[in-house]
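Trying the structure run again after the queue cleared.
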Amino acid sequence: MQRWAAIVRSAVDAIVVIDERGRIEAFNPAAERLFGYTEAEVAGRNVSLLMPPPYRDEHDGYLERYLATGEPHIIGTGRRVSGRRKDGSTFPLHLTVGEADVDGERKFTGIIHDLTEQVALEERMRASEARWRSVVESAVDGIVVIDSRGTIEAFNPAAERLFGYTEADVLGKNVNVLMPSPYHEEHDAYMQRYLTTGEKRIIGIGREVTGLRHDGTTFPVHLSVGEMSVNGERKFTGILHDLSARIRMEEKLREQNAMARLGEMAAVIAHEVKNPLAGVRGAIQVIGGRLPKDSRDASVVKEILTRIDALNELMKDLLLFARPPQPHPAAVDLGTLIRTTADLLGADPALKGVAISVSGESPTVEADPELLKIVFHNLLVNGAHAMQGQGRIDVTLHGVDGHCHISVQDTGPGIASGVLEKIFTPFFTTKARGTGLGLPTAKRIIEAHNGTISIQSPPGRGTIVDVELPLSAPAP
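Done. Tokens:
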């Protein structure tokens, strides 16, 4: 008996023995430390003393029900509950209750394990997990976690935006669903080779790869992969940064550099040709003036002058294209400017069959009116030529979000997709005598005004040119 008493008194966990009426009969030192009572203070008192509401009020009823029906809630099983100390504070504990018969009387022994530290640790872990989850979910870059088999286990909101999948769409799927060929087919073999040999290609290094969106489009992405161990299992975290904007910027810079070199070359050629061409034209005119007007030679001279004039127009286009536009901004009423340009176009007998309407708002922009006249004259002439001098051109204007949007739509046959791709390429033209510099020059002028120009040709709707220019700032 003394041996068992010694064991109970030396136990680390609290031990409380009660009779079938719930009165405390034993209370070991660990229980004293845990609840703050001495054994003398609790002996003979109802064990509900150690419980906060609602357990305190329910305990006697539970014990009576068990004695009457044998239905256990804790006895023989155990569960997490709350305890109440002498000072009124509460704490989490795990309680297991055993039943014994002592000299024909039923006794119940409760073994109580303090869970305060465990619960605090769990709360810290939950808080830490919530904090890291918040960091991952708020990250600008896509974050994808996979296991050693390549199965997706986490997919943050940035990854959802990047790839067009929801997390539910991809969880449990192989990460190669996010890869186009040949990466799609190669990924599993690469993963297996790394797990077998430790040979790295991206893990711990990072490189530029290609991603595959849900809609089947691809995009450039920088992928860096880290490795970790979670409960003994290898996991891989991929951080993906969309490179689309950077690639577009690099392409634009290359295009601008190429255009600058081309412009310099065009300026040199135009300058070297223009002045001698004027001299040649003057000499031809003198020769023609000495010939009979109705002679064959006079008609040849007239054709030579026509060709020289066409070459001179090409030189003008070259010089206009070669010079970087330097706008001299002024307040410009776009509606009035475009109507004036359309009226001048209507004076051309070859274009009498073209009806031009200008509708919508008449917003004011800060721009160089002479340069804008060049742009819209070019767009209207292109539309008129596409319709072979017969048809309608509708120009609509409206302001939105600080910009003026101008749409120029003709009723012509439209533009083939292969031609549309090259429409702003210098010297590319489908006209028999075109220079291929009109639209590239228009593009340079619009961009010099911090605007944009684009062309589309929907089936059966002719050609639509969209121009956007910043509106003038309102007067203070």
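The domain at 247-322 is CATH 1.10.287 (Helix Hairpins). Worth checking whether this holds up in the mutant runs.
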